[in-house]
User: Which sequence fits this backbone?
């Protein structure tokens, strides 16, 4: 659905009303049979793309397409499964840890589809510093436990809905190494769930390889520094610039419903450090924009934070 924000004041007001209506509609769980069938056909198309080597790309493109439908309809049940254990090694991260596929969970019928790859972070090489090694062992164990809890819940929801005689459902979980440097690494867990409509969300796990500890946003900055304000203001500037450049881009920045508007990040806001060492703030679908915008990220320029970075 394309939104034109360049019309008259009255037209813009109607558009805003429509956006507000769609946001409220997001929480309704209803979808026509025809819409369900169309959505599931898109799932199958994405699955076929996966099988010819474009798996992640296909699902992400489908997630964006499904997100456009989310503004019109929303979640049905959740998803199904066949289990295949695997220890398939994927990219090595730095010299201290690596990521492996701990378990694959796959299931596909006419109405249900699951493709879940559960990653596990493993210490690769022992460091001579006992404290760092202990921290690293603890941090990787904590991350693995969190990932296991997330994926177990998705699988459980999927299986609970297998006996439903209506609707379609799909769930995918993938992981991606976003950055690997001598100082830190970040693993991204990408989750997508479709049950009448689709929803994509991400988790970011960053470990400081100099200490072995999980990195929190505050750890990047000089103690006592205000990093919330410059990051938040830069994000607002980027939001406005994107909306000015593209009429199809819309963020809740100057909405009439004040409580919807993005005001500031918090210490709990998702983030990671990219290969350039810049802070990247991530938001899930519906956090700061209508669902059709998908997940969004904002890279904060180095000069914005240079005076307060450690």
Assistant:
């Amino acid at each position: 659905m394309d939104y034109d924000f360049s019309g008259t004041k009255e037209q813009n007001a109607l558009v805003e009303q429509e956006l507000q209506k769609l946001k409220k509609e997001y929480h309704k769980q209803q979808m026509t049979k025809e819409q369900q069938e169309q959505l599931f056909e898109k799932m199958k198309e994405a699955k076929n793309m996966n099988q010819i080597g474009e798996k992640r790309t296909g699902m992400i493109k489908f997630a964006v397409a499904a997100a456009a439908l989310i503004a019109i309809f929303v979640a049905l049940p959740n998803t199904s499964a066949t289990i295949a254990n695997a220890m398939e090694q994927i990219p090595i991260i730095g010299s201290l840890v690596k990521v492996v596929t701990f378990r694959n969970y796959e299931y596909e019928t006419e109405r249900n589809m699951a493709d879940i790859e559960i990653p596990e972070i493993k210490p690769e090489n022992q460091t001579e510093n006992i404290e760092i090694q202990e921290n690293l062992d603890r941090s990787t164990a904590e991350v693995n436990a969190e990932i296991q809890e997330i994926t177990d819940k998705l699988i459980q929801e999927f299986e609970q809905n297998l006996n439903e005689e209506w609707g379609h459902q799909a769930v995918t979980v993938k992981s991606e190494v976003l950055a690997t440097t001598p100082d830190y690494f970040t693993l991204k867990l990408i989750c997508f769930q479709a049950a009448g409509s689709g929803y994509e969300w991400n988790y970011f796990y960053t470990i400081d390889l100099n200490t072995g500890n999980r990195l929190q946003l505050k750890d990047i900055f000089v103690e006592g520094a205000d990093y919330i304000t410059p990051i938040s203001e830069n994000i607002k500037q980027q939001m406005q610039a994107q909306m000015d450049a593209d009429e199809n881009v819309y963020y809740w920045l100057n909405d009439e419903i004040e409580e919807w508007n993005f005001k500031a990040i918090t210490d709990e806001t998702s983030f990671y450090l990219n290969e350039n060492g810049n802070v990247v703030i991530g938001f899930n679908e519906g956090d700061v924009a209508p669902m059709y915008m998908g997940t969004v990220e904002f890279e904060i320029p180095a000069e914005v934070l240079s005076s307060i970075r450690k």
